[in-house]
UniProtKB/TrEMBL annotation:
Keywords: DNA-binding, Transcription, Transcription regulation. InterPro entries: Homeodomain-like_sf, HTH-type_TetR-like_transc_reg, HTH_TetR, Tet_transcr_reg_TetR-rel_C_sf. This is TetR family transcriptional regulator. The keyword DNA-binding applies. It comes from Marinobacter persicus. It comes from the Bacteria. Residues 36-55 bind DNA. Residues 13-73 form the HTH tetR-type domain. One of its GO terms (molecular function) is transcription cis-regulatory region binding. Coiled coil: none annotated.
Length: 209
């Protein structure tokens, strides 16, 4: 590849990456549904025409953003879990890593929720659904592993427990959005996980009277 072509390719990749990160940042400041390509182009210092050279249309841009979110979230959260052999510790590491990811990228919950609320089944929406399905599968696998390791009660409904796990994170994020104190989630998250983890333990039988 000629040097000039290689430089153009690298510049395109950089422009795309910068634009995607700008969209994530802007979603923290306003409703993603109201975010225009003109606003995005202005944020990255491009004309709308130049922006469309990198992304043919807004749907393709949103698809690229969804891919970025999926890759970044799963990579960071799953790698945090993989550092632990004990399943309950892996679940906690995932939980805290996910909250930390949201604190660093507060626009992501709005973006994901906005896509999931759209009618139809566009590419960005499909990517987010698949990401959440992979995430839930990972949690179920860890819960089953925890049962085998005897760190989690054998009678636990793992599918329901996975829903509760994701619900706890989503609830935390919503509370942070309501209060406007997203950064405080990092202090609250360990306490919420301790309550969740307690629900996974065996309940001792009541002594006979």
């Amino acid at each position: 590849m000629p040097v000039s072509a290689k430089r153009t390719y690298q510049s395109t990749e950089l422009r795309q990456s910068t634009t995607i990160e700008a969209v994530v940042q802007l979603c923290a400041e306003q409703d993603p549904a109201t975010l225009t390509t003109a606003r995005i182009a202005d944020e990255v210092g491009l004309s709308q025409g130049a922006l469309f050279k990198h992304f043919p249309n807004k749907n393709r841009l949103w698809e690229s953003v969804a891919c970025w979110v999926s890759e970044q979230l799963t990579r960071q959260v799953f790698s945090a879990a993989d550092e632990h052999q004990q399943a309950d510790q892996a679940l906690e590491a995932m939980f805290l890593a996910h909250v930390d990811f949201i604190v660093r990228h507060p626009g992501i919950p709005r973006l994901m929720l906005g896509e999931l609320q759209k009618p139809g089944n566009g590419p960005a929406k499909s990517i987010i659904r698949q990401t959440l399905a992979r995430y839930r599968k990972k949690v179920v696998e860890l819960l089953n592993q925890g049962i085998q390791q005897r760190h989690i009660a054998s009678g636990i409904d793992t599918e329901a427990a996975a829903v509760l796990y994701l619900g706890a994170i989503q609830g935390l994020v919503v509370q942070g959005m309501i209060s406007g104190e997203i950064n405080a989630l990092q202090q609250t998250a360990p306490r919420i996980f301790r309550l969740y983890n307690a629900s996974l333990q065996e309940i001792p039988d009541e002594p006979e009277k």
